[in-house]
Amino acid sequence: MSKKNEIKKWFNYFFYVWCTLALLFAVLLDLICGTVYDPKKSNFDVAIIEQSIYFSVWVAIMTSFFGLINWIHIHNKSMAKWMVGKNAHTSITTLNIVIFILFNVTFIVQKGDIIGFDTWYGKTKSIIEHILTPIIVLAFYFIYQNEKVEDKLFIKKYCWFNLIFVGIYSFYIILRMSMLLKLNIETNETLPLIPYPQIDPTIVGYPIFIAGTLAGNFGTVFISIFFNKMSNIKYVAIQKNLSANKTNKNIN
Fold it and tell me: Which of 28, 100, 189, 203 has an alpha carbon within 20 to 30 A of 110's alpha carbon?
């Protein structure tokens, strides 16, 4: 094995280890340190609830699970293709880029403190979750993913994968909000009605809340279609290059 291929192999391995352990570490760090250092979260149950309302935490757990499955697959090749193939990679890449966009746009436009960016452990978690991991996931997808899924087939069968995940999260948030409103439970900074004030219906109104929720759900569909298409273009270009090199060798 050439040195280049060996480096590529080890980076491939590192990627799945990072997804598995780094994101799990980030979530647990914020959960434990928040309970220990933040008086508002001195109750461990409150800390867990506070973690569970953020989409980034759901994506971190999903990405960690994805990394673990592929890590195991490297050693024994026992996982089903739908769990380790290109469509799974496209889905995870889409979710992480959505998190990257939401966080960094908020970071740029929001005035005042950014949620989760007010303590050293919060900053560590945010950097791992919202910046480093999305960049690593996107780079890995376009460098290592050498499988082609036809655009029409992807649109017909696979682009809606993330709707299941995002839909479950949205249902959880809406159900929680409905229960809080029905029971007239007073919310605060630690336990807000909606984790993201930009779409809090009590602040911006229900039309914006509904529009924002639908945009968040179906936005993952269009982003995944775009990534699959770009990956296919890269795949075709590589194949043409390999074919041209092979032809030149035969001529020589």
Answer: 28
The whole model's pTM is what? 0.89
Structure tokens at 80: 């089903």
102: confidence class by pLDDT, cuts 50, 70, 90: confident
Read out DSSP for 179-241? HHHHTTPPP-SSS-SSS-GGG-HHHH-HHHHHHHHHHHHHHHHHHHHHHHHHHHHHHHHHHHH
130, HSE (Cβ side, Cα atoms, 13 Å): 21
CA proximity to 67, closest of 148, 140, 6: 140
Q: Which helix (H) or strand (E) holds 118?
A: none
- Asked whether the beta carbons of 19 and 133 are under 8 A apart, the reply is yes
Helices 86-109 and 55-76, packing angle to 10 deg:
150
Helix (H) or strand (E) holding 55: helix 55-76
Higher pLDDT, 167 or 5: 167
- Distance from CA of residue 4 to its chain's centroid? 29
| Residue 221 pLDDT class (50, 70, 90 cuts) | very high
pLDDT at 110 over 70: no
Per the listing, tokens 């409103």 go with: 181
Half-sphere exposure of 59 (CA within 13 A, CB side): 27
